[in-house]
Design a protein that fits this description.
The chain is an alpha/beta fold and 217 residues long. It has one domain: Rossmann fold, CATH 3.40.50. Helix content is 31%, strand content 35%. The chain has 6 helices and 12 strands. Strands 1, 4, 5, 6, 7, 8, 9 and 10 form an 8-stranded mixed β-sheet that branches. It has a two-stranded antiparallel sheet with strand order 2-3. β5 and β6 form a beta hairpin. 37% of the residues are buried.
Length: 217
């Protein structure tokens, strides 16, 4: 599995990551969601550089132009609910892509531990298609791994792009060990070293779903 860390050299991506981390800016949910969406657009642009292109004729009012156009069929997948604005940003760029949605959550035990559970998946046939699986935070890596396994029940994809804005080093290590596949690329905006006792990324940014859509019980 190839890992691509796209925050170096610095670009506008760094600015938007800084804003979603900033406790003073996070209090505006609209701006938080918009920044996640913008980051989705930037991730999509970087991923687009790896696709297959074919030169095709485009008729203009004055003649024929030749442009290179992407050939892959793309399926954008997000993990509910935090993944929705990230998904929308990617979809803004790949506007003719098909879409899939997966519900994954942490089921906590009385002992304070938790396990990841998948409750719902809506997806087209993904055989021979290029998958972009988007989740803004890669903490333990469990949600991403289980979501990918659930998605694979819908067919055999051509290539899989996993995209997370902020990851823990532990989550990256887990994904590397759990998904030993040359047909997978992991795209990251930033890697933080620490994962605390509650499996939150430190310094991270907090709970992306709550910041985007409000607190949950």
């Amino acid at each position: 599995m190839e890992i691509k860390l796209i925050n170096n050299p610095p670009s506008l991506l760094n600015k938007y990551i800084a804003e979603i981390r900033d406790i003073n800016i996070q209090h505006d949910p609209l701006r938080f969601r918009k920044n996640i969406e913008r980051l989705g657009e930037l991730f999509a642009y970087e991923i687009s550089k790896t696709l297959t292109y074919k030169e095709e004729d485009v008729k203009t009012p004055l003649g024929i132009a030749q442009e290179f156009l992407p050939q892959e069929e793309i399926v954008i997948t997000s993990i509910l609910r935090a993944g929705i604005p990230f998904h929308n940003g990617i979809l803004n760029m790949f506007d003719r892509a098909q879409n899939a949605f997966i519900s994954a959550y942490r089921k906590h035990t009385e002992e304070g531990e938790f396990e990841i559970q998948i409750e719902y998946i809506s997806a087209p046939n993904i055989t021979d298609k290029t998958i972009i699986l988007a989740d803004p935070m890669l903490a333990t890596g469990g949600s991403m791994h289980l979501a990918l396994e659930a998605l694979k029940t819908k067919g055999k994809p051509k290539h899989i792009h996993l995209a997370s804005i902020v990851a823990s080093q532990a989550g990256v290590d887990y994904i590397q060990n759990a998904i030993n596949d040359d047909n997978v690329t992991l795209w990251l905006g930033a890697i933080d070293e620490e994962l605390n006792a509650k499996s939150y990324i430190v310094p991270g940014l907090g709970d992306a779903g709550d910041l985007a859509y409000g607190d949950k019980l």
